[in-house]
Amino acid sequence: MRRLLAILLLCLSSASAAEAIEPERRDAVIVTGRVWDGFTFKDMFLPSQAGTLHLLAGQDSAISFVETQEYYWPLSRQVYVDLEKKRREVNGVLTITRDGKTVAEVGPSPYVILYPKGALNGNGQLLWGAEAMRAYSAYQQDERTFARRYVEAEAQQRVYERKLLEAGAARLRGAPVEVIEAPDPLPKPSLKLVTAPAAAYRVALAAGAYEMALSVEGVLVPGTARSLAVGDMAGRRVTVADVVPEERWTRPIATNSADMRIFARPGSTFYLTLSEADRFDETEYLPVVSPQQDAVSGRNVWIRRAASPLDSVAARFTETQDLPLARLKVVQTEGSGFGYQVRAAKEGEKEDLKAFAVSVPAEAGVSRGEIRSEGEGPAAFHREIVVVQPRNDGLALSLALLPLLGWIAPKILRRTAGAKA
Question: Which interval of the chain is the signal sequence (predicted)?
């Protein structure tokens, strides 16, 4: 009986706690959209209390005004919305002004995002209106055609395999060898992607500060007025690297800035992967893709976009050596010891890593090196390498004893001088 009462009390206390932390919801107008981040389009929403929408120049972005239920969650210190419970698109005319002058008046329009080589490869493009609908219709037709071709190719493959089995069985019974032609290979899917159509307001502006508000039949919609800050994308592209140690290749070490040095042991080999990236101040990038995240002014953030097109670099220690981009296979070492070995991938073998293999000389006199690519500009790459030589225990002990010797020596000299006197 006591156990049953304890369980009931626990359930009641849990229910009370859950009821106590239920957040207060309120009706609000938020801004949602797919905003360009310099490479791809990110889903974003701006809470009703946030006064500024941040965008990047260079491509247009799609934004919408939505009336929904909004609530603040204290555990994460963020505002959330319940779009499943309430979602009403606010349609009207979006007016954008700068210094009191109207820059654009935009109505809602259907749009799609076209990714010619897939969303992961970026370089998306917003298509609007009739062009968007045509692109999506053509994409659907291409997908249906591919699906039909794939089903037909699979059927031909099954027929081919059945004929092989039948011919093999007949050959065992003494029949002559039958030549069976292989069917065409299965078609490969296209990486092209066109998102489903949606309605939004098209915002394509040069860098600068603006104001915007939504009106319906000339009447301002409450809660839609926002400041609009559009950032400049010029000069963002840089080449960054990841240092991949052989013994822990799954945990690469980022080296983003040109003033960062790479430390390596003599006689070791490490692997370098290069990427194209955009460098931002946090206050320039985070408000665009994650408006509620705290950004620190003066702190850089590097956003990796794609693998670098560089296929060779030069490593210089005592002499210069050209290093090609290599296909590498990572193999776990056998036995009780845990570790990895990196070797060149064999023909037809899928690589685990594409990187530059940098071998550090074992000579004791080598203390510095560098890795450099040809050319200048954003695609160029340069890092200094510091060769960490083994510690000299005798020298280290001598240096450690210097303070003690400095304290003892004057006392010995004074005592010697007093004895002579």
Answer: 1-20
